[in-house]
Structures are given as structure tokens and as C-alpha cells.
Design goal:
It is built from 11 helices and 7 strands. With about 280 residues, it is mainly alpha-helical. The chain has 3 domains: about 100 residues, Multidrug-efflux Transporter Regulator, Chain: A, Domain 2, CATH 1.10.1660; about 90 residues; about 45 residues. Helix 8 packs antiparallel against helix 9 and helix 9 runs antiparallel to helix 10. The longest helix has about 60 residues.
């Protein structure tokens, strides 16, 4: 039964465990690791409010997506997450940048889509890359259906699956550095000044708007840079091949000319000396 304190409904740790689905042991463990703020103590009893429940829901959501507790703590520490507004903020950010709807697929479907005999090896590698997440009973969750689709398309083009996964893996590695640039930009230029000002309620809409704009700008910039880089790489690569082919072709054309010139040189008449002999 919830208790009202200062107009807000609070719960004991046992009540919080029942409503949140998190065991008392784990709640205490989260507190010990700094993931959950301490309760308000009244008459030697600890009470947990809406902020605690929201924080537990966030931790459960992130853990369900494979995020480790150490990473969750860093995320909360970075945002100074001590209010429900910050919890809502983190959820909003993740929703904006994780717009794909995940799909559940059976292992037989994956084997049929990608072919090959080493299905177990492919599944293990895809999980390690973060493309798939095993959910039991030979079923997997596609974390990024678009990336899985890219690999499948390349296989359809005749590119071996192992090579397709190599490409996707390299893209993921490079994307990590690019993502860090944008996150650092947001933290330094938007979040930290906002946090230093006390996070005024009137400024939250502007923060959300900036995040939305950043998502669009980052995508547009990445596409533009990628197209420019590919064009430059193609120019260099095919330019070398063209120059090489021109040189080979020129050499092949010059050889018959030299032979023709040799054949066309007049033989000295009987009794005549060649120009070289006359010298």
C-alpha cells in the first residue's frame, strides 16, 4: 500500500519490488552501484517515489537491449540523472536514434536467407557484431533489420556472406568514431550549458528540438561525405587503371610501327655503300 508524503505517493522497498518487477536484492544492488538514488527515510523506513520507479524501468529497458550496468551508470552520470525528466530525456534520445522496428526471425529463416552450411558460425558472428540477439527456442531478434538486409543484398549480388559481414563490421567500427563526434558535440555545446544553468523547465523543448535536428543533420552529413569519398576513391582507382591501360595500349601500338620502319628501310644497291659505311 502506497504512502503519501508531501502530496507524493511513496512505496517501501517491498512495494517497489512488486510494482516494478525488480527483486529487493537487485534494488539494493542498484543502490550500492549508484544506479538508484537512496530512499527518503521516515521513522526508520525507506520510501521510494515515482523517480525511483521510473529509473528502475529505464534500467530494465536498457538491460533488455543488452546494455551493461556499467554503461548504464555512465549514461546516467553523464546526464546527472536524478530526476524523472532526465529519465524521459534518455528514453527520448534512444527512441530518436533507434527508429528501426526490430524483427523476430527463426533460425531456419536466417539459414534460408543467407544460405551456406556454417549457419551456427554465422549466427555467432552476427551476435558478436550486435546484429542479432538470441531470445530462445531457435529465435533471434534482428537488432538492425536494415543492416541485416544490407548483408543479405550483398549475398544476392554474389558476394560471399563472410565478406559481406566484413564490410558491415568495418562500417560499424567507423560509425562508432563518427557517433562519438556528434555525441561530444551535443554534450559540449548543448547539454553541459543547459545542465549548468540548472536545467530550467522552459528549456527542455529546445533541447529535444536540438536533438531531433542533430539526428537529421548527422544523417545528411554522413550521406554527403560518403558520396564524396566514394566518388574520389573511384576517380583515383579507375584513373590509375585507365592510365595503366593507355600506357599498355601505347606500347602495343608502337611496336608494329618500329617493325614497319625497319621493313621500309631501303637496301643499298649492289656496289653502293651504306651511309654508315661511307662515313
Amino acid at each position: 500500500m502506497m504512502t503519501k508524503l508531501d502530496g507524493v505517493e511513496w512505496q517501501t522497498i517491498d512495494e517497489l519490488a512488486r510494482t516494478s518487477g525488480v527483486t529487493v536484492r537487485n534494488i539494493r544492488a542498484y543502490q550500492a552501484r549508484g544506479l538508484l538514488p537512496p530512499p527518503q527515510v521516515r521513522a526508520r523506513t525507506g520510501y521510494y517515489g515515482p523517480g525511483h520507479e521510473a529509473r528502475l524501468e529505464l534500467i530494465k529497458d536498457l538491460q533488455g537491449e543488452g546494455v551493461k550496468l556499467d554503461t548504464i551508470k555512465k549514461l546516467l552520470d553523464t546526464t546527472g540523472g536524478s530526476t524523472e525528466q532526465v529519465v524521459h530525456f534518455i528514453r527520448t534520445v534512444r527512441r530518436l536514434f533507434a527508429t528501426e522496428e526490430r524483427q523476430i526471425v527463426h533460425v531456419e529463416e536466417l539459414a534460408e536467407r543467407f544460405g551456406g552450411d556454417d549457419t551456427a558460425g554465422v549466427l555467432k558472428r552476427a551476435q558478436k557484431m550486435g546484429l542479432l540477439r538470441e531470445i530462445g527456442e531457435q529465435q533471434y531478434e534482428e537488432v538492425s533489420p536494415r543492416l541485416v538486409g544490407v548483408a543479405q543484398t550483398m549475398v544476392g549480388m554474389g558476394i560471399p556472406l563472410s565478406r559481406s559481414l566484413d564490410v558491415v563490421e568495418q562500417l560499424r567500427k567507423h560509425a562508432g568514431g563518427i557517433a562519438k563526434l556528434y555525441v561530444d558535440l551535443f554534450l559540449g555545446e548543448v547539454w553541459q550549458p543547459f545542465d549548468a544553468s540548472g536545467r530550467p523547465n522552459a528549456e527542455w523543448p529546445r533541447v529535444y528540438e536540438t536533438i531531433e535536428q542533430l539526428r537529421k543533420v548527422s544523417g545528411d552529413a554522413m550521406l554527403a561525405v560518403l558520396e564524396l569519398a566514394v566518388a574520389e576513391r573511384l576517380d583515383v582507382t579507375f584513373g590509375r587503371d585507365i592510365v595503366r591501360n593507355v600506357r599498355t595500349s601505347s606500347s602495343a601500338d608502337e611496336e608494329p610501327v618500329a617493325e614497319q620502319a625497319t621493313e621500309a628501310a631501303p637496301e643499298p644497291a649492289a656496289g653502293e655503300r651504306s651511309p654508315e659505311t661511307s662515313r
